[in-house]
Amino acid sequence: MTERGQSSRGGDKRVLMCGNEALAEAAIMAGCDAYFGYPITPQNEISAYMARRMPDEGRVFLQSESELAAINMVFGASATGQRTMTSSSSPGISLMQEGISYLAGAELPAVVVNVMRGGPGLGNIAPSQGDYFQATRGGGHGDYRTIVFGPSSVQELADCMLLAFDLADLYRMPVMVLADGILGQMMEPIVLKEKPRRDLPAKEWALTGAEGRPQNIVRSLWLGEGVLEELNCTLRDRYEQIQKNEVICEQHDVDDAEIVVVAYGVAARIVCAAVQKAKQDGIKAGWIRPVTLWPFPIEQISKAADELRIFLVVEMSNGQMVEDVRLAVSGKAPVVFYGRPGGGVPTVDEIFELIKQLTLRSKTPI
Amino acid sequence: MTAEGLYEEIVIAGFGGQGIILAGRLLAQTAMLAGKEVTYMPSYGAEVRGGTANCMVVIAEKKIACPVVGRPDSLIVMNKASLNKFAQRLKKGGLLVMNTSLIDSEPQLDESIEIVAVPADELAVELGSQKSANMVALGAYLQKRGYLSPDAAAQALADVLAERHHKTLPVNIAALHKGGEFAQRHCPV
């Protein structure tokens, strides 16, 4: 058994891991005390890995009878002050939304991983980015937010797990890591290394047995007059702080670009290759990659829109993040969308051709 | 292909049970141990023994942008269905390694594409393990391309082969070398 906050697998060595296993190992490293989950493709490697590794580390693994059970087990474990997580894929995440809303209402930290697949409904098991709306708009009922990461490599997937657990504890709220089938399944060499961690306050609100202190109550039901409004305002202030402090966004060659492509996750990898090709072709192209999807990099994108240039948003969906880009651009520049839904994956050449076309008729309204 | 500019996109395909995924993982592990950048992406549908399986591997000196391979530089196909499915996607000047033990037809391809025709199953049977045909084909590919050696793959094999199969290490290593020797003899660089 290793100490909480450590993993026996960490080190400086490059190891080849798939995204699902890498994020699971990173969760162990982050000090995840308990994992609860129910199987679904394409994220089964997470639970399989946790089933093997968590007992090794003296921690809890439990395969629940359903996604509803899993998220409510997360609620229970979190209420006792333990670091806890669950994972699923799109249809399973829908089932968890009630629990996520309750976590938000009860101000409980938790990490939820969604390895997205095609939808709506049971859809298919191919990679997709169709759950952006659900993830970034809270997803369940009520007036709340979740922090959402949209990593684009196996290394970043692992790294953002460490941060996700810290931010969940710091802001006392559910944090979602939004991956997709490709990122979950693909392997890349990664280094599982400790990163600097946040200073976190003690969990004085946790249910640890009330010996020698007043009773703590964890709940999301607030019937007294004005009590819920007060909670909502507290949450609002917290969300504003997060928007101010926690945005992560990568920008490449934006300054002299006549076209800026915006994409996240695996789509951003394809965009990166397409932009490289466009640049070799003499096109002034840049790209922006939001790493946090909420808080969204509004300022960065707004600033890039101060110059007249075209924005192209590429997603593996019919267009979801494009709405956030349009809000950030706020009418200052044309925003064009290109998407492949239902498990379709855009090719480098598709994006490259589109960049070529768009820059040909640059400066005219679209 | 200079080491500096190495950017090799590979598709390996065959039917489930032929060790397609293992061959891809081994290629990726070998590349990583050689200090290269690599991405490996398996097909993860409802693959079962006898169904189709494929994986995409990208190996480069620099950071790899896109892990999804549209048009491969090299294609290793272990059965006819995979040849039919992927051969037309090969880049001009690309390399096709095909298992002639299970492919009886000559593919109609662009002249610029080089073909290494390996009787992988037969060579594996000579070693006493038909299941090692994947290693024969991979060995032939590595020898032909030259940026990694069959021997480097042999050294990485224990990392990717499940421990319960480690008794098959010697025959699989022999198969990698046998594939390499075949390529050297019949299709010299």
What does this structure look like?
The complex is a heterodimer of chains A (366) and B (189). Chain A folds into two domains: 232 residues, 3-Layer(aba) Sandwich (Rossmann fold), CATH 3.40.50; 110 residues, Rossmann fold (3-Layer(aba) Sandwich). Chain A is of the alpha/beta class. Chain A has twelve helices and 14 strands. In chain A, strands 3-2-4-5-7-6-12 form a seven-stranded mixed sheet, with helices on both faces. A five-stranded mixed sheet of chain A has the order 9-11-10-13-14, sandwiched between helices. A two-stranded antiparallel sheet of chain A has the order 1-8. Chain B is built from six helices and six strands. Chain B starts with 6 loop residues before the first strand and ends with a helix. Chain B is globular. Chain B is α/β, with parallel strands linked by helices. Chains A and B meet through helix 7, strand 8 and helix 9 of A and helix 1 and strand 2 of B.
The CATH architecture name of the largest domain in chain A reads: 3-Layer(aba) Sandwich
**Most residues in contact, chain pair and counts:** A-B, 22 and 17 residues
Relevant CATH superfamily of the largest domain in chain A: Thiamin diphosphate (ThDP)-binding fold, Pyr/PP domains
Average predicted local confidence, pLDDT of chain A: 95
Tertiary shape of chain A: globular
Going across the major beta sheet of chain A, what is the strand order? 3-2-4-5-7-6-12
Measured by DSSP, the beta-strand proportion of chain B falls in: 15-25%
Counting H and I runs of at least 4 residues, what is the number of helices of chain B? 6
Distance between the termini of chain A: 60 Å
Mean pLDDT of chain B: 93
Q: Could you say how many structural domains of chain A there are in total? A: 2
The level 1 CATH classification of chain B is: Alpha Beta
Briefly note the structural class of the backbone of chain A.
Answer: alpha/beta
Taking Cα atoms only, what radius of gyration of chain A do you get, to the nearest Å? 21 Å
Order of helices and strands of chain B: EHEEEHEEHHHH
CATH architecture of chain B: 3-Layer(aba) Sandwich
Number of helices of chain A: 12
The run of helices and strands of chain A is EHEHEHEHEHEHEHEHEEHEEHEHEH
CATH class of the largest domain in chain A: Alpha Beta
- Uncertain parts of chain A: none
